[in-house]
User: Fold these one by one.
Assistant:
Number 1:
Amino acid sequence: MSEEAGKAFVDQVRAIAAEAAPARPEDELEAFRLRVHAILSKELKYAEVEWNDQRDLDFAVEDGSYRFQFDPREPRYISILGRAPGRFSDEASRVRALQAASMTSHVVKVAKVVVLKVDDNAWIAGTSVEAVLPSFDVDKAYIKRLVSLVRHAGTDFFKRYEELAAP
Amino acid sequence: MSEKSAKGFVGGMSAEAMALAAPTPARQLDAFRLRVHAILSQDLKVADVTWSERRDLHFVIEEFEYRLFFDKDDPLFVMVSAGLYAQIDDEASRVKALEAASAASRDVKVAKVFVVPHEERWVVGAGLEAVLPSFDMVDKSFVKRWITLLRGAIAEFRRCYDAG
């Protein structure tokens, strides 16, 4: 076998090995992003499904805006972020929001609610649902369930906040 | 064929069809319970993994007691709880704990920390919950990750509370 033919043979074996190698999560992430986009926009028919600068997905369901975040450093970690109703601008309402957030996080499945400072005198409540996926093999029903869980957390939070605020 | 034997034949066919039907999450739950028990006790070698009366799993790692709950009404939902591990008596500590719980829940992945009323006091708890796409996705590294995330949430809460 000539040197040239030997080199070609080695290159061919390398190419076959590369094709046969299992895909790494990092490589699969982009395909997963596109699949989630299709699930949100075509299968679930949510409105305003758009990519942001970080290649996360913003979308709207009824009156709420949500963000589906991907993590390039940990491709199998996903989160859906939302915002609960309300803006809290004094100490009493901030503490009530913290209490309602804690109670909701305790009671609802998977989702959590946190109170975030937006400026020196205002706080809002953020909702999220997160998952570390064992594989990228998720379907419409799974994504729909996650969105439903994060939406429910926002509703539950506001109900509890109003109950705490009631005289 | 008599009516009785026809009924028997149909009954037999129905039973066979049931046996051949694809397993549902509800039917798979008990096997999943046993698999998680094996992952904890044999693969991860966690000591004292025990069943509760409701067929949930209790186990201890270092100073924390954990409970892994299964939900027969929602079989693909699982929850690992670190239990209620701190009690708070006064209002200033309660507000500090609420702030720390919110900050920890914001900063850690998946797990959550909460402060809730319990009897006459307030208690802190931490949990991690998941809705699984399917049972066969859960393996040793997945369960280990859950526990690591939950321990991380407790550590982060303590750090935030002490810094608060």
Note: The first strand of chain A starts at residue 47 and ends at 51.
Number 2:
Amino acid sequence: MQEIIDYIVSLNIPLIDEGVARFIMHLVLASIIAVVAPAMLIILTWLERKIIARIQDRIGPNRAGPFGLLQGFADMIKMFTKEDITPATADRIVYNIAPGLSVISAIMVFAVIPFAPGFVGADLNVALIYIVAIGGFGTLSILMGGWASNNKYALLGAFRVVAMLLTYEIPMVVALIIVTLAAGSMSMVDIIEAQSGMWYIVSLPVVFLIFFLSGIAETGRSPFDLIEAESELIAGFHTEYSGIKFGMFMIGEYVHMFALSFFCAVLFLGGWQIPFIDVAAIPGPFGPILGLISLIIKVFLVVFVLMWFRGTLPRFRIDHLLDFGWKFLVPLSLVLLIGVAVVVRLFAPGSSAGVPVEPGPLSALGTPGEVVALLVMNILVAAAAVALVSTAARRSRSKGLRAVASVEPVAASGK
Amino acid sequence: MLKDFEFIGVLGFITLTIPIVTLIIAWALRPKKPNPAKQETYESGIETIGDTWVQFKAQYYIYAIIFVVFDVEAIFLFPFAVALNQLPLYALIWAAVFIVLLFDGLLYAWRKGAMQWW
């Protein structure tokens, strides 16, 4: 991106200096993101309906256009032209803001994602905290939608969804902290650089699982899809929304899912890197283009897995969900945090810049040693957690069986 | 460092216009026929029974409080995570003490039954 800015400056147009050229570049990139992200809804809904259909042994939409590709456009036209039925007693301002806020929060997180070497909207050094903060707006918009609808089912649906979202926020944030530990920085660009040795999905697989599961719960996808539980609570918090406002909640959900796939790809799958090729060193425009293609492939891989989950797994019950979140994921992620901190510090190369710090005792083993140690520690902690849970389950099952067996059978009056 | 946020401001403004433009286009395109029967609150086709703003179950409040505690802990852990390699080795022990203390709080809440849904 810096090269494009330099090129614009070198054209020597009057009034265009470095700052203005940078602003123009920002404007172009922001417009691309703001247009492409909601437009992805059309591709993603088509993809989802086709994939789920194939999993369920049917074809999916194939009437609107070749292979049903124009189905998304048909849905968009339908939503624009539907009447907007607002309940007369709804809280007007909050009711109208909620869907907009959902879309805004989903698109704003794309500001910090590096799309190619050198192409990042804002290389914040607090990018991960920014993501968590903006993601919180999505949670707020759901509560606003449920509250302002003046409908007790929407309100109950909104309460349950917010309880679930709060529960799974913690393991997600702790997984982000673990990635920060391994990379040494919160900036997305630095995290990709730190993965040039080995992608984090290899050295931190359990952390990836925690982040992925919490992310699925955060975006409200199956199997955590209380939000869309059509057979319960009518339609949840968006019962009273129709037409384009409902469409905007849908846009928010799909763009949020798309953003989650981007995070998984950037934080764990190495972003725009290609294995064994140094993408940043390729001259001309081919480096960024290759990096972008590699990132898109990884993102769609994660999107496919998300849709696979939706077509295959049944929905969880709310108390199972909350128990799984608080009693399994939160303790597991905290223990992993301590474990990864210990391993990373033991393998740290010493630094003499600023405050001189002694190197960690095992730093002689270098990066491969660190990768292997992280992997081993991940697997050990996961095995211990699974063993603990299965012992607890066995004990509670046998306690239940003893309770049932201790009830004396009433003598049947067999006269 | 403040300069980095320029893009976020630009994206924020442009993103702000998207719902507004969408709503304006939809307002122009859709039929407007308000009708008192349509605008009643939906309750599967019957008149609503009872108050709409139902009582807030106290369990949600407890989950929210525990969430706040752990969220603040996570925010405190972010600087530790960034600065880990520049800290002496015994800093690990203090971080572990911090995490274990808060984990203890979670265990206490668990045993006291604060994390039961019913």
Note: Residues 58-82 of chain B form the longest helix (25 residues).
